[in-house]
Amino acid sequence: MLLPNFTYLRPNSLAEAVEMLNSFGDTAKLLAGGTDLLVNMKHGKQSPAQLIDLDGLGELKASQTKGEVMELGAGLKAAQLAGGLGGALPQTLALGAGALGSPQVRNRASLGGNLATARPAADMCVPLLALGARVALLGPAGERQVELPEFFLGPGLTSLAASEVLTKALVAKPQLGSGSGYCKLGLRKALEISLANVASWLLLEDDGKTIKEGRVSLGAVAPTPILSLGAAKVLAGAAADEKTFAAAGAAAAADARPIDDHRGSAEYRRDMVAVLTKRCLSQALADARRN
Amino acid sequence: MQKHILSLTVNGKEHQLLISPNKTLAQVLREDLGLTGTKQGCQVGDCGSCTVLLDGAPVNSCLVLGLQAEGREVLTIEGIAKGNRLHPLQESFVQAGAIQCGFCSPGMILSAKALLVKNQSPSEAEIRQGLSGNLCRCTGYQKIVEAVMDASHKMNGEVAS
User: Fold this and answer.
1) Are the Cβ atoms of A6 and B130 closer than 8 angstroms?
2) Where in the sequence is the domain holding A31, given as residue range(s)?
3) Contact status of A39 with chain B (Cβ, < 8 Å)
4) CATH number at residue A264
5) A42 & A72 share domain
6) One domain for residues A62 and A13
7) Considering chain A, what percentage of its residues have pLDDT values greater than 70?
8) What are the start-end ranges of the H helices in B23-104?
9) Which SS3 state, helix, strand or coil, does residue A51 take?
10) Nearest CA among A134, A162, A149, A133 for reference residue A20
11) Any bridge partners for residue A158, and if so which?
């Protein structure tokens, strides 16, 4: 299985990458980790005339905290995020990144690639959604930031323009009393696209027992990763206990819009969303009590 | 298609090659350098038979462009023995009968090597996790896991090399 021909371009800076992208228009594609794009090219699904290789750009590999916001470079590898960036990263994203593909894939796959590829079950997208993340997109006119629910438009579809580079994801720095979780259900433990995956985030009141705010995001049960608005409603102001988590699970299952496919039935997926949501919220609670 | 100069280090030896951009690292290793120990199985990153270590990290060389190895160090199965002395992992694979058809063995051994550098005494579960990107179509996983466990025992006290 051979790659089709293309012109290979290696920009020396992000600015140069944007310039290259704009000089070629739609015929060029950005190459990040290559774990999706190169596969699609080998299968003949994509054949860009130019590949602009972002892999060597140090600018995209930084992570830093500015005030209350963590900026995660789009070039960070799943393996780096799975390592938790020295404990700074919210647990849900580290767990999601660690559940992606295999060790070999995680050493190549990037945060930005996972976001831009926008698969409904994407292991880093679902946690980022629960964390209330937004993404920074750099185009010829400068940078704009987009909230994730507005970024994901469909399977493989995003609001990233052909002239833009996704440069980073921005998430709130984990605060006292907050915690998060990630639960993935597949038919096997590695190299798996989820049947259903759920990420959770909780912020507790000072009493440590009441939920101030909570978010649950769902993967593989809609055309994009989605936030469960029903679950968020159940969680806000409720007691942080199993009963609340079960009610949030039921609300999340009601928000899921799964389909039948070769991986599983819609009915099974919906049932599993309830179970995974409950488990994932317990995980977030344990995390919040540690933090 | 314009060819590019690629400078990389493979198994400790520096090379300069003229290659087409659409060649994967797996193809460069096999076709340009004659290192056919790196196997090409699925070619889409699912089977792990093309696993090599890129600056010490296991990657599927079928999903890395040759040109992306510019300035980097690649370790293939040909580079892990010391002269005529097999690497402890290679020895353990032979002794445990962990090699059946042998097609997955180079990738398995390189994934195991990367695992043992990070974790000198992995549990069985950690070994299975470390090898989760490598498929054995003979399904001889049990002996492979035992071989890695055995090698880790042998290598403990020694510096992982």
Assistant:
1) no
2) 7-53
3) yes
4) 3.30.390.50
5) no
6) no
7) 100
8) 25-27, 88-96
9) strand
10) A162
11) A152
Same-domain pairing of A258 and A184: yes
Give the per-residue pLDDT at A25.
80
Q: Name the helix (H) or strand (E) containing A98.
A: helix A91-99
Q: Within this chain, do residues A48 and A62 fall inside the same structural domain, yes or no?
A: no
Reported confidence tier of residue B160, pLDDT bands at 50, 70, 90: very low
Question: What ipTM, to 2 d.p.?
Answer: 0.96
Q: Which of B54, B64, B104 should we substitute to test contact with A (largest number of A Cβ atoms within 10 Å)?
A: B64
Asked if residue A47 belongs to a domain, the reply is yes
CB atoms within 10 A of CB A172: 15
> In this complex, is the C-beta atom of B48 within 8 Å of any C-beta atom belonging to chain A?
yes
Q: Which of residues 119-138 of A touch B (CB under 8 A)?
A: none
Instruction: Considering only residues B2 and A288, tell me which one the structure prediction assigns the higher pLDDT.
Output: A288
Which of B44, B68, B133 shows the shortest C-beta gap to A102? Answer: B133
Torsion, Cα of A148, A53, A82, A87 (10° steps): -80
Domain identity same for A26 and A106: no
**B 75-134: CB under 8 A from A:** 111, 114-115, 129-130, 132-134
Cα three-residue angle B63-B69-B70, rounded to 5 degrees: 150
Task: Tell me, yes or no, whether A2 lies in a domain.
Answer: no
Q: Does A12 touch chain B (CB under 8 A)?
A: no
What's the pTM value of the predicted model, to 2 decimals? 0.96
Using CA atoms, how far residue A273 sits from A122, A255, B97, in Å, is 16, 10, 43
In a domain, A223, yes or no: yes
Q: What is the CATH number of the domain that holds A29?
A: 3.30.43.10
State the Cα–Cα distance between residues A39 and A49, nearest whole angstrom.
Answer: 16
CATH number at residue A82: 3.30.465.10
Domains along chain B? 4-79 (3.10.20.30), 88-155 (1.10.150.120)
Q: Last residue of some domain: A172, A205, A227?
A: A172
Q: Name the DSSP class of A291.
A: -
Residue A74 domain flag: yes
Query: In terms of CA atoms, which chain A residue is nearest residue B43?
Result: A1
Give the one of A38, A103, A191 whose C-beta lies nearest to B63's C-beta. Answer: A38
Instruction: Tally the domains of chain A.
Output: 3
Question: Burial code of B3-25, b = ≥16 C-beta within 10 A, e = fewer?
Answer: ebebebebbeeeeebebbbbbbb
Residue B157's pLDDT band, with cuts at 50, 70 and 90, is low
With contacts defined as CB-CB under 8 Å, which chain A residues touch B111? 103-104
Do A71 and A40 belong to one domain? no
